[in-house]
Amino acid sequence: MSLFGGDPAEVERNLDEWVAGFEQKAARYQELQHEVDDVRISATSPNGAVTVTIDASGVLVDAKFTDRVLNTSPDELGRQLLIAVGQAKAKIAGRVREVAEQVVGEEAGGRITGYYEQKFGAAPEQQPPPRRHDDDDEGYGSVYR
């Protein structure tokens, strides 16, 4: 498509299409901003005492405590809170990727997600549970299991 060559009517038509394309992209990116602003991610501490909710900026927007706080020391409760916040933050990039790919497509969504991966890290892949090693099986596993 040549914007500035040929018939003036064609140039005007091409310029209108070009501007319309930019306006559509701008509208999609504005929609994406609204969708990302609405992202909320929750995580629960390992001992179940606290569940936190953060936004896509990593800001804590809610914390709910269960009766388990009654059996948790203040220091441990603080540690559990920080663990839950860290778990939630680790999910931000993945959730933003989902939203971005739905709104602006996979390629653009991947580029946008890079910022969140740099800031919060990529979502950790699920690791299998550690294998139990008995002292007497030398790592080969027991024949009695």
TrEMBL record:
InterPro entries: YbaB-like_sf (IPR036894), YbaB/EbfC (IPR004401). Pfam families: YbaB_DNA_bd. Residues 116-145 are annotated as: Disordered. This is YbaB/EbfC family nucleoid-associated protein. It comes from Lentzea miocenica.
